[in-house]
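> example.struct
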């Protein structure tokens, strides 16, 4: 073989090896985008253009276009809501949650939880609107709904398959005593969310989940010992991400805590009223390592999707 042929064959072989290595690396990397909302409070229309801080922001039409745009370029997406879907505009007073549920179904929400205001027209109403117009799973592990209208309409967790990834999702709700009239939550049994979520998260990890997400309506943190997302993050062992609500906080960046196992837990929340759409982009590497590559609190406005 002459020198030219030798060099050419060597170059081709090296190129093939690099291509194979690149393909191998790509096969070992998985990406997942998590989109989330909380405390939308029946805000179906944008805020009025009245010169105030939130003028023109929000609205389900702009949010739907934004979600559609992201899904058109991202392969694996989960869309989650952290409760208080209802209450806050005349839409709820008149239609009792039907348009809110229809909008969420149209946008393709993968899972959600119940916030305290989702009981405002009674459990029978929430169950009716969910069955008739919502149909996405309600994941709650610390509410016992036996002998209530929600008895067969919730699950303690749900596992989603995205590519080669298994993503386990559970949810926790706030203590309703003193916050929700007893006649509205009926025989719902509240359980301490920390042991409840920890037990489910452990089961999900044993079931081979690459990531465990807890959707929470506890509130991000308080000045006393009240249970919160911060407390849950620190006291847990197998939860990777907490999507929060209830306290209407606009996080500039997701918060990070260290759990009892010495591992990182990310907590995020995007205010209220559908003003922002949270976006978290994760990369999963060979061996189970996951990295939050990018995070955004996207302002939901008509002009950003046109």
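> example.seq
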């Amino acid at each position: 073989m002459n020198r030219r042929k030798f060099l050419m064959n060597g170059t081709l072989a090296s190129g093939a090896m690099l291509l194979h290595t690149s393909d191998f690396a790509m096969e070992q990397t998985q990406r997942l985008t998590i989109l989330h909302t909380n405390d939308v409070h029946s805000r179906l229309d944008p805020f009025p253009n009245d010169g105030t801080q939130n003028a023109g922001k929000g609205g389900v039409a702009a949010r739907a276009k934004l979600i559609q745009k992201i899904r058109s370029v991202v392969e694996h997406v989960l869309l989650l809501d952290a409760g208080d879907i209802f209450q806050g505009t005349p839409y709820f007073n008149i239609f009792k949650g039907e348009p809110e549920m229809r909008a969420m179904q149209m946008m393709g929400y993968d899972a959600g939880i119940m916030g305290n205001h989702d009981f405002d027209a009674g459990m029978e109403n929430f169950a009716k609107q969910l069955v008739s117009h919502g149909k996405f799973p309600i994941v709650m592990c610390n509410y016992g709904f036996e002998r209530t209208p929600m008895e067969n309409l919730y699950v303690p967790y749900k596992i989603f398959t995205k590519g080669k990834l298994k993503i386990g999702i559970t949810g926790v709700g706030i203590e309703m005593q003193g916050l929700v009239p007893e006649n509205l939550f009926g025989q719902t049994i509240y359980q301490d969310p920390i042991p409840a979520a920890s037990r489910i998260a452990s089961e999900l990890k044993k079931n081979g989940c690459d990531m465990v997400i807890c959707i929470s309506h506890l509130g991000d943190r308080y000045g006393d010992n009240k249970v919160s997302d911060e407390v849950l993050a620190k006291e847990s062992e197998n939860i990777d991400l907490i999507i929060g609500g209830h306290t209407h906080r606009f996080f500039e960046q997701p918060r990070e805590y260290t759990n009892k196992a010495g591992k990182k837990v990310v907590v995020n929340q995007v205010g209220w009223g559908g003003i922002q759409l949270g976006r978290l982009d994760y990369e999963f590497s060979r061996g189970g390592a996951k990295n939050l590559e990018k995070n955004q609190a996207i302002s939901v406005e008509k002009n950003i999707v046109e």
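> remarks
Residues 3-28 form the longest helix (26 residues).
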